[in-house]
Amino acid sequence: MTRPFRFAVQAYTCTTRSEWVDLARKVEDLGFSTLHVADHYLGSGTMIEGTGHPVQKMACVPAMTAAAMVTTTLRVGSRLACVSYHEPTVLTSEMATIDVLSEGRLEIGLGAGWLVNEYSAIGIPFETAGRRIQKLRETAEFMTMAYSRGEEVDYRGDFVRAYGYVATPRPIQRPRPPLMIGGGAPKVLRLAGELADIVSVNFNNRSGVFGPDCISSATEAETRRKVDWIRQGAGERFDQLELETGVYFISVDGRSEITPDDLMERTGMDRAQLRDCPHAAAGSVDDVCEQLIGNRAEYGFSYITVGLAHVDDFAPIVARLAGA
After folding, report:
1. Does residue 145 lie within any of the structural domains?
2. Which domain holds residue 58?
3. What is the pTM of this model?
4. What residues are paired with 246 via a beta bridge?
5. How many domains does the chain contain in total?
6. What tens digit of pLDDT does each residue of 149-175 get?
7. Do the Cβ atoms of 145 and 153 come closer than 8 Å?
8. Three-state secondary-structure class, residue 35
9. Does 201 reside within a domain?
């Protein structure tokens, strides 16, 4: 089944109410499906140095709520809420509240966490990948159970323990808001295939920083492997999944200040590798549309997220492909 395209923006850097409100309304007006917020708390300082990650200036849950309250059709999503940073039962209630306040426009994104310096800076133990993925599993299972049943839940895992618990409020979307799980490594992508509605295919961030190792995990061959891991986890339900990915390295002729040469210098890729990388888009509007259509045919990526800096660059691509 070929899914129609939809597009999202992920924003990090707004600092005032007016900036955030204006962005949410602009994204909606341009035809993007969703405004995503990441889940990072590491401000400027010594611990962010060397991570390769920008500062996120608004916290995930309140920013999503605010965006939902000033729009009417735009979906809001957490890409991705780190389960290490949240008490699962509390996050379950917070997310359901956003779904109610948005009148059913929430997408819940969950991740296992990866930015090791952030864990240290905010005083949260950076456990093994297996332990972090187990908490991700339990959080996703618990949310699904709590939202779907609308009655008392008894869940006793290693990380999530709740009994005599009734989720309140109940989300508007049934049986629950769409669940996105993402990552770039085998265990987390198999888990996503098993439990999620939307799978976010990203870099493999096993190094705990963003750098060359991440980019080397984004080749054509590595991306095929990632899709295979999702398929292994999903089994017969694979065709029901929506596959999402972030296009981070963008140069649209006549619209972007960044040139293809800039992208090649930043990534270490040549022009052919940029064309084959699902996280890159370079060339004319026609070229980028052709690349996205090819990636959908090759990998199944129909849900495309771009960063705040590329909203205007990508507007004609959204206008042409959204819903197609």
Report:
1. yes
2. 6-321
3. 0.96
4. 305
5. 1
6. 888 999 999 999 999 989 899 999 999
7. yes
8. strand
9. yes
